[in-house]
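Example A, followed by Example B.
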Amino acid sequence: MWERVNELVRIRNLYKKYGSFSVLRGLSMDIEKGDVYGFLGRNGCGKTTTMNIITNIIPKDEGEIILGNGRPVKVGYLPESPTIYGYMTSREYLEYIAACTNYQGDVKRRVNEVLDIVGLTKAADRRAKGYSRGMTQRLGMGAAIIGDPELLIFDEPTSALDPEGRAEVISIIERLKSMGSTIVLSTHILSDVERVANRIGIMTNGRLAEEGYLTDILRKHGGDVIHLSVRGLTDDLKIKLLTVDYARAEFNDLNGQFRFGTDNAEGTSRRLIQLLAENSAAVDTFSIGTASLEEVFRMVVGANAD
């Protein structure tokens, strides 16, 4: 049987029910060594169930999960709300977790390394009960990486954090990425995924609706995007702009702006300007960019809704 050398996680036809409710309905996905994999989907779509199955917290009903092409793979897991013992200092807590994971190296040295990675060196000897939510989350990340796992799974690591706390967590993920870690990142903050992920999977109806390199998926579903507002817009011109056959047109009533999705921004721009001139209208604002992950996510999930 042919194996992908860099494949770290292979899932095929995974099923899971809770009572009569099917959460996973034939999920298949692939994660390769060194990936930062953005695992996306609406609440209740099965992301946490999938991560709990990968980590052996709950059993699967049917399907195949192969880690490391069949060899043992150590996994570090950060749940959405990690359990931290507040009477311990972060140093004591990480030493305790290192013992739980049967870490074979120099524990004190590893704890110091992890404290540095998660930015808690200065607070290492303070009791965790006095930590902010962001510090607590970073300590949870430290617990996930203390055993030097080959695969890291972070479930909503920036949930309910303020902007500074979010930035600190994303900075840690970027550092782990630069160290070659393989990370599964589940989050609803899609701008964070755009910042750190190289591959994504978008889950809906218990399976993946899309999986691949982030740049490829953005290009496939979004392409270039033109934002346009018109001076002297009439109802007739609005209809003409919304029904052009060379771009995917939308109109935002809140800001009075058109959005055109296109695979040829230059040609589409030229034709739009010509259409305005033919209707005695002028450009008010005009910009060209690329589709955001949030736009693509809404498009993919909407197209695959029950």
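Example B, a separate protein, is given below in the same form.
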Amino acid sequence: MGMKNKISTSAPGRICLFGEHQDNLKLPVIPVAISKRVNIQAEIINNSNIKIHLQNTNSSEEFNITDNITYDKDKDYFKSSINVLKRLNYEFTKGLDVNVSGYIPIHSKLSSSASLVVAWIKLLTKLNGIDLSPNEIAKLAYRAEMLEFNEPGGKMAHYTTALGGVMFLDFEPQVKIERLSTNLGTFVIGNSGQPKDTKAILANVKIHAEYIANKIKFIDSNFSFRNTALEEFNKYRKYFPRNDFNLLLAAKRNYNITMQAKELFTDEKFYSQKEIGKLLNKEQQILREELNVSTNKINRMIDASLNAGAYGAKINDSSSGCMFAYAPENPEEVAESLRKMGCKAFIVKPDEGVMIHDDSYSLIAS
């Protein structure tokens, strides 16, 4: 059978079960890849142009792969990915006709951008004859999406979409991944239709978190979010404005919840879907009451989903207009309760990471 000149890849979206924005403090998180994916199909063409067709937005863009590639806009991820790879001595001489489709709602903070970059880098490296591990794909995607544009945000999305499944992801002293093998079941994603200023919120959270972490280390070199007990935090209250101190307490409480969740996931004797739901509700209470990052509509959506039988629910990423409900038993009823409020709702489950769908192709650099 001859070699084809087409290849397709896909990568999942993700939600953060536990540890919202904790990766900015290099604290652990528990994310899960979900069954909404970005799909990229590419065909090698006989020139050096990259032609990209974005089906969801009915738009397109084109650039020459051999030129000195400059960015024409923020989040110019197709170009930034190629630039990152070129600096690592990847070679590109042949063009591509690319079609991108996705089932991850834009601005929902389900990591549509990370999924796009992960799938794109997987495609480009495979066409270059390199079969990178998911970990390596995640690192490159983080560079292409975040570092290339000096964007705030952590690495959680890139590792989750690259590796897939449910994981305990830690960042200190280096990235550590622990797979969590469990039957989580279904979730319901609800979109309020009220987008928030994601970049500004992320930047504000990250800047304040880093400022507080650095200041408290200066005050007490022995301080540790991980090891300092919550009851010891009051001795630092006098050094911070109230809002900053509340952020400090919230970070610690979220860390404790994340570690409790990990214990549930890793101990078959105590694992319970309902207990996971209770912990989700505890984290949402912190996000709503202590960090003030939830909205009235999101709060009503959460109440509706819980009344419809969800075990737990929380805002998604705290900088989006979306929430998710953990509904392993009656997801249709939960989704319908959100639709009755005029919200879009869809059911998802844990999914695999980035993948190649057609492994028969000729090399882009040959």
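On Example B: The chain has nine helices and twelve strands.
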